[in-house]
UniProtKB/TrEMBL annotation:
Protein name, UniProt field: EI24 domain-containing protein
Pfam families with a match to the protein in the record: EI24 (PF07264)
UniProt keyword annotation of Transmembrane present: yes
Transmembrane keyword on record: yes
Membrane topology reported for the UniProt record: Multi-pass membrane protein
Keyword terms: Membrane, Transmembrane, Transmembrane helix
The organism of origin for this protein: Qipengyuania citrea
Transmembrane segments: 20-44, 64-86, 129-156, 189-216
Location of the protein in the cell: Membrane
Length: 230
């Protein structure tokens, strides 16, 4: 029962829980708010830049540029922003899953200071940006293949997101920072791959981080049950 399909199935069944719906509402609202604020800032910036060269009414053009910028940013950055925001509410998802399926695990949970949460979220953001920037030249070389570039970004982000989701759960239970996480690399990569794919689907992408966090909770705890003295 520690397989990815089983973890995803259990996660989908629990989406209706009040605690998880609350996290979904908060993360979706904040994530969309960030993009709307970015679009507004882009609109103002374009308007001011054009006004410095001409006195003509360019509000329609500025709105068009802002809308195009939001679409492009949403396509490339939604997963980064959504997972960054989720870092601050992931504990609610993990607690909800643990309360229902692994009540024994709740006794070993450590409180994570807000400063540590900030540090983890910023490190995750930096890793994601740097890894995708490093993958960009490789993806550019594979553009002619049609799917090569997309495959490169999928693989890079599957690795990153799988790691982030596992760590969201594991750091709450580990007794030593040097302690190895019980969730294997293959399962971690596959989980990340599923979440990356879901993040590419409009509207479903709002659910993807929540599903990923819940599934990671199942996979970490199922793996811990197989490790002696875990």
């Amino acid at each position: 029962m520690n397989s990815l399909p089983a973890a995803l199935a259990l996660s989908l069944r629990q989406l209706g829980d009040r605690a998880i719906l609350g996290v979904l509402f908060k993360t979706a609202l904040i994530t969309l708010g960030i993009f709307l604020a970015g679009g507004a800032a882009l609109y103002v910036g374009v308007e001011r830049a054009i006004d410095s060269f001409t006195q003509a009414d360019t509000s329609a053009f500025g709105a068009l540029v802002a809308a195009a910028g939001m679409i492009i940013a949403g396509w490339f950055l939604f997963r980064v922003v959504a997972l960054f925001v989720l870092q601050f509410f992931a504990e609610d998802v993990v607690r909800a899953v643990e309360a229902k399926h692994y009540p024994h695990a709740a006794h070993g949970v450590r409180d994570i200071p807000f400063t540590e949460e900030i540090g983890n979220a910023l490190r995750s953001l930096v890793r994601t940006v740097l890894a995708n920037a490093a993958a960009l030249p490789v993806a550019a070389l594979l553009l002619f293949t049609g799917i090569g570039a997309a495959a490169v970004f999928w693989a890079v982000n599957a690795f990153l997101i799988g790691r982030e989701l596992r760590d969201m759960v594991w750091i709450r239970h580990r007794s030593d920072p040097a302690e190895s996480a019980p969730m294997g690399g293959v399962n971690r990569f596959l989980l990340g791959g599923v979440v990356v794919a879901l993040l590419a689907v409009p509207f479903i992408n709002l659910l993807a981080p929540i599903i990923g966090a819940a599934a990671a909770t199942h996979m970490v705890h199922r793996a811990r049950q197989r490790v002696p003295n875990a």
